[in-house]
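Appendix B. Worked example

We walk through a single record from start to finish. Start with the input: the chain for 2Fe-2S iron-sulfur cluster binding domain-containing protein, Mucilaginibacter rubeus, length 92.
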Amino acid sequence: MANNTIMLTLHYLDENQMVQVAPGQYHSLMSLIADQLAIPGFGLCCGMGSCGTCLVQITSAGSNLKNNVLACGILVNDELANKIVLIPDKIY
Ligand code: FES
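Next comes the structure step. The output line below is what the pipeline stores for this chain.
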């Protein structure tokens, strides 16, 4: 049976917030973060990969690998399942 939800963790200001979303529920990882955390200044910029204000890191539990990504260009799909999204404390 297919699982129709995606579980992931948002890490911001030393706190983890687990979220469960449906594929396609959000236009992008940026809109998911903006909706779930309401970070001032986050997600209020270009939305098309040119300003860099949505820069986050994606990692997995127990992994030292952190991939820098622009959240506005990341689809919310199974590739994010069980990932940890590290959001910088300061948004530029
Ligand atoms: S919002 Fe500008 S690069 Fe993502």
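Two observations about the output. Residues 30, 45-47, 49-54, 70, 72 surround FE2/S2 (inorganic) cluster (CB under 6 Å). The domain at 6-86 is CATH 3.10.20.30 (Ubiquitin-like (UB roll)).
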